[in-house]
Each structure stands twice: as structure tokens, then as C-alpha cells.
Amino acid sequence: MLEIQDSSEIISVYEPGKAEDEPQYNSYGVTCTEVEFDVLTGQYLINRVDLLYDCGESMNPMVDVGQVEGAFVMGLGYWLTEQVKFDPQSGRLLTDSTWEYKPPMAKDIPIDFRIQLLKNAPNPKGVLRSKAVGEPPLCMSTSALFALKRCVEAARKDVQKDTFFPLDGPATVDKLCELCLTDPSQFVI
Fold first, then answer.
1. What is the pLDDT of residues 38-52, one digit of tens each?
2. Range 27-162 has CATH code 3.30.365.10
3. Which of 34, 88, 146, 189 is in Cβ range 3.0-4.6 Å of 48 for a Cys bridge?
4. 128 phi, psi to nearest 5 deg
């Protein structure tokens, strides 16, 4: 429903239809991510990811594992590298090439990527007892963001600056390095 109250204000309201005809279900998953982090440069490696995903009864496990891997890596881009910047004056997009805009590349994929589909979890409401497999694993990539946050917390604790800090995505290399509060005067050879 769209309502126009005057020439300067437009209000849009979404009213969902009846959901009893649509199959609704929950998808579950668990992820553990191991990262290696350099506090001086902000560079990191995702050494290992263990991911268990509930896709219902898989129609084709090889395809489903590929979908989970793709969604997870897409999420890594969202949470870690894909920073969009605009010029505040003109509104022009500043990150219009891979020199500035960093989608996930081959070296961003976890070195040891272990995907397992939950067995014996059919979905009685899904097509052939299956569940969505492409989108939910994208959310599981936040585990890499949280792992990097723990690394930054440890670095800050080492320099006695153990205070709260927000880590909003994307957690770029520059942002991670800055959050570590590393001071060159603390370097020891």
C-alpha cells in the first residue's frame, strides 16, 4: 500500500499475505572458523572452516556442498572485503574497480574448507523433503568476522588497551590494522 499525504512525504507499508499456504521451516547450521592474523599489517588467512548445515534431505549432495561453499565465500566478501565508498560531495562511486573494491578472490577461500550436510533431517514441507541451501550459509560467514574480532581483542590486550570496540563489516585490512592500536614505538627487534 502506498499513501501520499502531501507533496513532500511518501509512506510505504508492507502487509504480508496469509502464510498458511507457504511452507515455513527453519534451517540450522554451525560453523567454526580458524584464522591467522598479522597485527602489524592487518593481513589474515582463513586457515580452516568446519561447517555443518541442515539442508533437509539433499537431492544432490555435490551441488548442495558447492552452493554452501559459494554462499559462504560470498558472505566473506560482504563481511571482510567488499567496502563500497562514495564521494561525499558528488555521490560518485569511488570503488568502481578491483583496485579499490575487493570481492573475494581465490586466495580468500579457506585453506581447509570442510562442509558437512546434516544427515537424517528431512523437511516435511519442502520440495522432496529439502531446504534452501544457497542463502542461509551466507549468514554463517560471520564466523570469520568474529574470529578476526577475537584476534584484534588479543592484540589490544597485549598493549594494555583492552577496551570495547565495535567491528562493523566490512572488516577491511586497513580497519583491522587500525583497531589493533599498534604503535611503532612498541616494536622490538
1. 998 899 999 999 999
2. yes
3. 34
4. 50, 35
